[in-house]
Structures are given as structure tokens and as C-alpha cells.
Amino acid sequence: MKEEIVNKVAKSGLITINLSSFLPNEKIKEIDLSCFLSNGVLKEKEFRQKIKNKDFSNYKNSKVCVFCSTETIIPMWAYMLITVALKNITDDVFFGIKYDLINKITIENIQSIKAEKYKNKKIIIKGCDNDEINESAYIEITKKIQKVASSIMFGEACSSVPVLKNNKNEI
């Protein structure tokens, strides 16, 4: 007689949180101000002309990160001018690189969850599955649920590292 295969993980009551689900859904693009420089220097008249001549249509309906990849002095008004140039095209404009914005939105998405749905639950924070998720997201999800979860683990159900048990903050 064959024994029925029992899925012990399914019966354990573990809830897996995959931080990839908190990543932004929006398109994110970057503008490197170095392409607007003249021999490594930002000159106002030329900068304004390059912005005026630039086709920004490929940034439509995107969140745009503005940064400069070269070591040069970029006056604050340059960021303001590029923001104005994008005003009717993009969803939003941010300072920094794409990685920074992905992290910012991921943190905001984690902060928006209702922690109460994890009350007295055993939680596994899935890890190591996406390079876009950095340490900040793991800190944020832990802060968010540690007061309500009965336990928090990192990893997979088959191989996890205990982080918090019975809300006793045991390490």
C-alpha cells in the first residue's frame, strides 16, 4: 500500500513573503547629464540648447532618474531645467540612479502593507532571488512585521535561518 505524500510545508502554516512582489511595476529610465556637457563642463547656454533639441518622447509614462556619471560640478538649476523639460512627459522625476529609485519605491511599497495580516503568523522572508532587492528592503520588512509575527525566518521553508521567535527577539 502506498503512503500518501504529505506536504508538511503547506500544513505548517508558514507564510512566505517574497520581496520581489514589492518591486516597482512602473517603467524607470535614466538621464545622465554627462551627455549634456561640453568638454566635461556644463555651460548654461549650450545646456539649454541641448535640452531644447533633445527628444524626450522615449521617457513618456516613465519615472525618470537624473544623475551625472562624470565628476564635474553640476549647478542645481541644471536639475531644475531638466525637470521642467520633462514636466508633460514623465510620471515623475528623481535625483539618483535607477537602483536608488527601485530601492525607494520598494521601501514605500513595504511600508504600505498592513502588518496586522501577519499577526501571530510564522513568516519566511524569501531571500537571494533578485539582485534588485537590497539590504534596506530586508530591514524594512523586518521592522514592519516584527511586532506582530510569532516568528520570522529568512530563506526557504526547506532551509531557513530563524530571525525572531515568539516575539521574544531571540537571536
Quick rundown:
With about 170 residues, the chain is an alpha/beta fold. It folds into two domains: about 10-25 and about 100-165, no CATH class; about 30-90, no CATH class. The chain contains five helices and seven strands, in the order H-E-E-H-E-H-E-H-E-H-E-E.
Number of strands: 7
How much strand? 15-25%
Low-confidence stretches: none
Structural class: alpha/beta
Described by the principal axes of the CA atoms, the overall outline is: elongated
Structurally, the number of domains stands at 2
Order of helices and strands: HEEHEHEHEHEE
Arithmetic mean pLDDT: 90
How are strands sequenced across the largest beta sheet? 1-5-6-7
Overall helicity: 25-40%
Radius of gyration: 23 Å
Distance between the termini: 44 Å
Number of helix segments?
5
Structure in words:
With 171 residues, this protein is of the alpha/beta class. The protein has two domains: 8-24 and 101-165, no CATH class; 28-90, no CATH class. Helix content is 29%, strand content 22%. The protein contains five helices and seven strands, in the order αββαβαβαβαββ. It has helices at 8-11, 44-53, 76-85, 98-111, 135-145; strands at 14-18, 28-32, 63-67, 92-95, 122-126, 151-156, 159-165. A four-stranded mixed beta sheet has the order 1-5-6-7. Strands 2-3-4 form a three-stranded parallel beta sheet, sandwiched between helices. The longest helix is centred in the middle third of the chain and has 14 residues, at 98-111. The protein is elongated and about 80 Å long. The two termini are 44 Å apart.
